[in-house]
């Protein structure tokens, strides 16, 4: 069957599918295609024949039995028995007048509501379906390796209000280095319908001076971020989006180093996940848990990280575009990060390009403004 014929399928098929799916059947006006005149003429002949038969007087059972057409034979039996003619089925009548290939048939097919069979991005990422594993271990944020990352401003002398940069020797860093991130989450409790759950998560990001042989290729920075939080699937509609996720929990982030290079903070956060078709939005807001003055290595960190972060992900044709933005509106400081994930190249591995500009690419650089670009491979796109 060619494409033209397959696009003009019988209205009986559309009616059967709609009834099977439990959807209301939408009827459109019959069209006047090439076959309409023939069908109308045939219907007129049948009508005239029926009227002529009725004019001849009441039929007998023997006469009804002699009728070859099943529909006419049944109508004849109804007349003989005195039963009223059944009301014609509106859908069947329209199907008879809207022949395959007519505009009416095509309009009826076009009026069918779209099927809601597109899988939910957030449901899949968070295992909200009842048939999913109760205790999955899955990827959380993006997992990637950038063998080559370049910065326009290497932070040779990190500083904070607590420790002056003059007390830190020049680290003689290269502008080119490697960067990678590992991020996993695990659900350790959930309800039967999977709408509620408790999770543990861990994210680690590393900057590695891979090409700097003069200082023995050290790991310049390692950030650790464990989290514990509860998740809920609201399944509500909001401003044209489907509200699929609400997280609430605690995280700790630090670089595990000694003074004067130590950086850390603790936060309580809430996160909302919305989606619309191929677009997913994740909005996270937090408040910092304050530390005592003698223990706080970075008292001004919220001046640069702000109090919220928006992540957007759009998928098309196996590719993904990711965008992150955060800002402190009081100080005007913040950051933006964009990423492109290709379709899978080798197994699950995708090509990945990342561009970052602003403050806080890592904890040691929380108050350092730079623009970086990296290229490498990724296992997932962050969902």
Note the topology.
Blueprint: H1 3-6, H2 11-21, H3 36-55, H4 61-66, H5 70-81, H6 90-97, H7 103-110, H8 121-126, E1 137-139, E2 144-151, E3 176-190, E4 196-208, E5 219-232, E6 236-238, E7 241-254, E8 264-276, E9 279-289, H9 302-305, E10 308-316, E11 319-328, E12 333-346, E13 349-359, E14 369-378
Antiparallel strand pairs: 1-3, 2-3, 2-14, 3-4, 4-5, 5-7, 6-7, 7-8, 8-9, 9-10, 10-11, 11-12, 12-13, 13-14
Describe the model.
With 383 residues, this protein is α+β, with helices and mostly antiparallel strands. It has 2 domains: 3-110, no CATH class; 121-378, Outer membrane phospholipase (ompla), Chain C. It has helices at residues 3-6, 11-21, 36-55, 61-66, 70-81, 90-97, 103-110, 121-126, 302-305, and strands at residues 137-139, 144-151, 176-190, 196-208, 219-232, 236-238, 241-254, 264-276, 279-289, 308-316, 319-328, 333-346, 349-359, 369-378. A 12-stranded antiparallel beta barrel has the order 2-3-4-5-7-8-9-10-11-12-13-14. It is elongated. The model is unreliable at 1-58, 85-101 and 104-115 (pLDDT under 50).
Which short descriptors sum up this protein?
383 residues; 9 helices; disordered N terminus; 2 domains; Outer membrane phospholipase (ompla), Chain C; 21% helix
């Amino acid at each position: 069957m060619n494409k033209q014929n397959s696009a003009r399928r019988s209205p009986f098929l559309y009616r059967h599918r709609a009834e099977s799916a439990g959807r209301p059947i939408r009827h459109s006006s019959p069209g006047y295609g090439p076959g309409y005149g023939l069908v109308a003429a045939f219907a007129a002949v049948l009508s005239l024949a029926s009227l002529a038969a009725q004019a001849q007087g009441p039929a007998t059972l023997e006469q009804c039995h002699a009728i070859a057409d099943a529909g006419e034979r049944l109508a004849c039996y109804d007349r003989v028995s005195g039963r009223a003619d059944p009301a014609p089925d509106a859908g069947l009548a329209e199907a008879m007048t809207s022949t395959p290939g007519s505009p009416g048939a095509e309009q009826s097919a076009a009026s069918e509501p779209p099927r809601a069979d597109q899988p939910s991005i957030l449901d899949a990422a968070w295992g909200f379906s009842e048939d999913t594993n109760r205790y999955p271990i899955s990827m959380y944020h993006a997992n990637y390796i950038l063998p080559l990352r370049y910065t326009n401003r290497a932070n040779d002398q990190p500083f904070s209000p607590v420790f002056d940069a003059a007390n830190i020797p020049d680290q003689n860093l290269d502008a080119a280095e490697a960067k990678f991130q590992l991020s996993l989450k695990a659900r350790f409790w959930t309800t039967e319908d999977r709408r509620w759950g408790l999770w543990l998560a861990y994210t680690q990001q590393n900057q590695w001076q891979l090409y700097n042989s003069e200082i023995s290729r050290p790991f310049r920075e390692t950030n650790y971020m464990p989290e514990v939080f509860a998740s809920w699937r609201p399944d509500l509609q909001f401003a044209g989006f489907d509200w699929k996720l609400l997280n609430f929990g605690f995280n700790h982030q630090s670089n595990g180093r000694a003074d004067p290079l130590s950086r850390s903070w603790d936060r309580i956060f809430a996160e909302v996940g919305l989606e619309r078709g191929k677009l997913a939005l994740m909005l996270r807001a937090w408040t910092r848990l304050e530390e005592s003055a003698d223990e706080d290595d970075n008292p001004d960190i919220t001046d640069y990280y702000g109090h919220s972060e928006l992540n957007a992900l759009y998928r098309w044709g196996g590719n993904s575009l990711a965008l992150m933005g955060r800002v402190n509106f009081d100080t005007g400081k913040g950051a933006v990060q964009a990423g492109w994930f290709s379709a899978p190249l080798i197994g699950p591995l995708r090509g990945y390009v990342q561009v970052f500009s602003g403050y806080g690419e890592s904890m040691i650089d929380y108050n350092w403004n730079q623009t970086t670009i990296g290229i490498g491979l990724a296992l997932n796109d962050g969902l």
